[in-house]
Fold these 2 entries.
Entry 1:
Amino acid sequence: MAPESNHSGRRSYIGFSGAEMLNEMLLAEGVEIIFGFPGGAVLPIFDVLYRSPLKFILTRHEQGAAHMADGYARSTGRTGVVLATSGPGATNLVTGLATANMDSVPVVALTGQVKSFLIGNDAFQEADTTGITRPITKHNFMVKRVEDLARTVKEAFHIARTGRPGPVVVDIAVDATANKLSDEPNLEMNLPGYKPRTAGHIRQIKLAAETINRSQRPALYVGGGVIISGASELLRALAEKGKIPVTTTLLGLGAFDESNPLAMQMLGMHGSATANFAVQECDCLIAVGARFDDRVTGNVSTFAPHAKVIHIDIDPASISKNVEVDIPVVGDAKDILEKMLPLIESPDRSKWLAQIEQWKQRYPLKYETDGRIRPQEVVEAIGRLTHHDAIIATGVGQHQMWAAQFYGWRRPRQIITSGGLGTMGYGCPAAIGAQFGNPGATVIDIDGDGSFSMTMVEVITAVQYQQPVKFVVLDNGYLGMVRQWQEMFYGKRYSAVVHPCPEFKMIAEGYGARGMKVSDRRELCDAINEMLKHEGPVVLHVAVEPEENVYPMVATGKSLHEMDLGKLA
Amino acid sequence: MRHVISALVQNQPGVLAHVAGMFAARGFNIDSLVVGRTEDPEQSRMTIVVIGDDKVLEQVRKQLAKIVTVVKVRDFEEVTYVERDLMLIRVHAAPEKRAEVVELANLFRGRVVDIARNNMTVELSGTEDKLEAFVDLVRPYGIRELARTGVIAMSRGEQKNARTSEAED
């Protein structure tokens, strides 16, 4: 959490331009880095950035800037900041904002707007940014007067990072940044309708604990909320004390160390068989910071049919939205788990845990190792060679699921992936953002050829700012996940999924990065090691088996236990 | 089921768009939506009539409360309350029919607020049912124009424990 504003009126801001005031506010909020792209309506801001201690990262596209701010935020827990101009600058942020919104990522987007008296006039580079972004942000503001700028920025940061975090847009008319303050700005936040609840209700916590203690076959179902609230350690303590096996969602990966014997890995459409069976068999399901997404539940009406459902979440609107909850506990996961831990007993659950172990032995995640390089073995090798300690970003599709299944997650904020919106093209810029937030860390984008092709232009941003991100592109020559669905549900009619790739090696070299290509299994580990050793950014192009499928798979409308185990069976 | 929900909101540009957009995006059906000032110039009150089952209504209430500029949400489901809808209705009434329409208006405690050679305008307030009953009765004369404000509501007496957004768990 960044320090609170220390501007209690000691200094005078009279005579400051709006842009100078903005700079002051960003520094007061603890901002160190801004991702973005300049333009006409933000020129006064860029003029101030010219001499500001704030680091500005010029991306090649505003979408890249938004994903970088998002990757920075997810990997550090701090609020990401993105700056773009009016009109197309703002509209190019849309995908990035929607991505952050679906996954509860704190991002503040500053957008320029045309002069206040031209708003609504179809002026050059005008777009109704607040109108466009309203449904895809946690909140947004328009600032037309320099007097309102400072307070609004403060409110924006407060909203972005408290409660269930999310993106907030501040759309600023260019004259509000150019004009000067003639009075001291009012820094008092005015948010009477914004009171996120953090403390859990003790009565509900007791009720939940009693229910857990009474249960024979409890299971923890953990989402990204546990990572956001910093409750991973408490989760481990709770699981171990109560002998409760743990499955995580895609965004919850890393909230629970997968080397822990209680870990069941991911659940849902491409979850482990163990996790899915456990959810269907459990008599008490404890959801923590998760929201019963359709990719998790499969057929809602048969989801966890024997379970009393406990739902811990900071967002009251998440409770009983998709699945009817028996015991809701609204509040911050950390606060609630802290209060719950002493109430949890350690009954004998050996029979249940033996059943879990049996599923694990019977249905491990596995793959074939003949013929071409299998994408799963690339992920597994990366996991092994980075000692499961790297920060991994992904695009969206098959490679994302393989990364989720095979990396071996150990700690929170390790996976940077677009879960809710499923944004292809997210991986490359998000990895760069994560690297900026974690200098010295190994950051790898495990990407697909389709996803990478959408935003790979940002490799040059990594080169320009000397960020040693590694991009591993699993090239199967298809848009693999769509192809898999066409194979399984559309009679193998491959429609618009053949996806020939360029020589990524040459493209990387054209951008000034190191380019590598491997297509022989025997060279795979050496190539990965060489990539990891290289000090600058690297694009490693891996040609993999073209028609590999992701298993297990729960088809749409099916229950979790009706999964297709494919070659795992 | 029909619910009357009242939301106290910050009196700021964009609030109505935010609320209306949320309803549209989440597929909730609005029967009527009224916005007006309150005694506090910083706050407005929205009264929204929503049709849906309990599960839908719970989501409506929570999603409304989640909007940053929405200060407080009340659902009048569990308290006795007064609701009023105001209607202006212009009815075709040739001189020989005027008396009949006036009589109907009087029976409904309406007022004739405008009169012309062949029509008259009646002002009527009350519950939606009452207004609709009147509309049905004057339909045979011919309705020229009709405008309604939509429902506003307030709880009776001193009870204030209509389910509010703060009492979720």
Entry 2:
Amino acid sequence: MTMSSDAAGCARRSMLRGMAGLAGLGLFEASRLLPAYAADAPDWPQAAFKQKSEIDALKQLYGKNAEASDKVTLDAPEIAENGAVVPIAVTSSLPNVTAIAVLVVENPYTLAAAYQIPAGTRPAVANRLKMAKTTKVVAVVESDGKLYSASRDVKVTVGGCGG
Amino acid sequence: MASTIRVRAVAGADTTEVQSLIQHPMDSGFVKDAAGKLIPPHHIEVVRFEHGGKTVFTALWGPAVAKDPYLKFSFKGAKKGDELKVSWLDNEGASDSLVAKIQ
């Protein structure tokens, strides 16, 4: 009886040791592999840029959802003749803005651009985006840790995704 | 080689306005070439603007940003003659940087 329980304990111990070793190996492997497959910039939020829905992209990027606000201004053309170059500008009158993101809902990947706004930088940005087809464009602003959004529809005559 | 970055920063009364243009194909990965083969994604991921050793603006870009990307923003605390450093990094590990004088 005692013998067998001892043996079992022994087996368990050696199994634990084996598992610890494996875990250690796993960690080592991961740390060795990570830089190899990520040619992406270290602070580039890859997962957020791969999301196909607005809500998932925001969840990946900021971990929360946005509520509509009239203090976010999204400047976009009503009709874009060329979807390859659509000027988009976002400004906000909200206080303590730390981030601005622009999402093009009908694009293959929704998130187009995310900007980090340190203190002292105005909560305003202008850029040019590609749009595959007529789409809703959403601007999201992070202010005091909360997300606020504004959206507009842009009619695209010629899509920006080529053939 | 000429720099891929063109930047114009102008100090105003309160803020410095920065406009930049970067030469980059910004391939989305969804466009086919003449032979019908997909052109792999090749786009800038991070653009950073630094003034006085402090980051004043960071852009994180996906493939939906248009070719030869344009950017405009403004920040406080800089004056004429200060240096503004611009640097970018793309998904293939290529990068470029430039130090511009604020006008």
